[in-house]
Amino acid sequence: MALDRSNPVPNDLSAFWMPFTANRQFKKTPRMFVSADGMYYKTADGRQVLDGTAGLWCCNAGHNRPRIVEAIRQQAGELDYAPAFQMGHPKAFELATRLRDMAPEPMEHVFFTNSGSESVETALKIAIAYQRAIGQGTRTRLIGRERGYHGVNFGGISVGGIVNNRKFFGSLLTGVDHLPHTHLPEKNAFTRGQPEHGADLADELERIVALHGPETVAAVIVEPMAGSTGVLMPPKGYLQRLREITRKHGILLIFDEVITGFGRLGSSFAAEHFDVMPDMITCAKGLTNGVIPMGAVLATREIHDAFMHGPEEAIELFHGYTYSGNPIASAAGLATLETYREEGLFERAAELAPYWEDAVHSLRDCPHVIDIRNMGLIAGIELEPIAGAPTKRAFSAFLQAYEKDVLIRTTGDIIALSPPLIIEKHHIDTLFGTLRDILKGLD
User: Which EC numbers does the record give (predicted)?
Assistant: First the structure.
């Protein structure tokens, strides 16, 4: 149906089945964004809403960035689409090179996807195929972690550990096990940065490997810092211990950096921030500043070269997507990486992190706050659930924040914040001042 330009809100919302949304509640009182610029969204009723979440952890350079907009416009008029199978176009190769150059040193090859979910599926398939390629075909098991989030495709929800993302969809993949999560509020509440307690939880990997036999395990996948489950930080020494155990047993280690990649912690990737190098890194979101769907898997030369055998005319990896390395997405990616570099946004995030941290922890004395966690330009504020009504308190905070012109994100009873890296101190003051007022009035 045609949109009435005098009223930017459609009068029929029924057709769109919205993702991860309380559809009935939303369609009774819709919240519509119609434009965005810099740190702000504009609503259908003309209000400016401060973006405290970089969209969905993805608009790291803010909104309506001229270099990115112009790159998309030019590319659409030059080459709109090119097949990715047995053909190529220059910008996909250029973007892969740029990604390789900014990634941690072991990462030398890039496989393009369309999203974080697809990047995870790709990395899991590469891991199993790699083990077969090197003569370890019995290694088919995958190990994730409780409360892990790795997208919404079957591989991702199988290795993931968020209950509602799993329980509705049958038996999922077989041969998957899970490490315990690292959330220890009784020991680590209100920690600034990495918590002191919990590195020993990585040793559970030894138990799982012993249970199944190391010769059956292909890969372990974890988020270096778990975002969508409620901002869970890795305890000091935890990631290092995972790397030691996986290397000892010939198991690949995959870091899911869909959220932590591209400056969120003040570095290109969390692998650099924590100085722990995995065998593969999955990314998306900030790769194109959220403007156009695109994801990638970064892999070591060892993994890539294991497939480069047999006749030269033979396909080495039977995997890919119609839109792998899409020309317009590639142009957006190149412009996004240049924007990050030109404006020093990763360094800016690192410089602002202490101010952000102090602002986050200033909410410690607010009603219902039972924990606060932060790192880089990320924060999690955990609220005490209402008895018998989990998620209701945080969702109420979300609705009130929107009415007060601030966008936050909630997961369970946790408020998650991850602003664009262009945020200024006065934006931080507004964000946390508004949250303080909301928390003081919450039931």
Answer: 2.6.1.18
Same domain flag for 101 and 200 = yes
Residue 60 lies in a domain: no
Q: For position 4, what pLDDT does the model report?
A: 53
Buried b (16+ CB within 10 A) or exposed e, 136-155: beebbbbbbbbbbbbbbbeb
- Burial of 19 (C-beta count, 10 Å sphere; 0-12/13-18/19+): exposed
What pLDDT score was predicted for residue 258?
Answer: 98
CA 382 to chain centre: 19
- The pLDDT tens digits of the residues spanning 142-175 come to 999 999 999 999 999 999 999 999 999 999 999 9
Same domain? For 182 and 274 the reply is yes
Same domain assignment for residues 163 and 86: yes
Alpha helices in 114-234 (DSSP H): 116-133, 154-159, 163-166, 185-188, 204-212
Q: CATH number of the domain that 91 lies in?
A: 3.40.640.10
Q: Considering the chain, what is the average pLDDT of its residues? A: 96
Q: What is the pTM of this model?
A: 0.96
Residues 310 and 287 in one domain: yes
Within 10 A of 243 (CB to CB), how many other CB atoms are there? 20
Domain check: are 261 and 323 in the same one? yes
- Region of residue 438 (phi > 0: left; psi between -120 and 50: alpha; otherwise: beta): alpha
* Structural domain contains residue 12: no
Longest dimension (CA), the chain: 69
- Contacts with 308 (C-beta within 8 Å, 6 or more apart), sequence order: 316
Nearest CA to 163 out of 116, 229, 117, 254 is that of 229
Which has more confidence, 348 or 443?
348
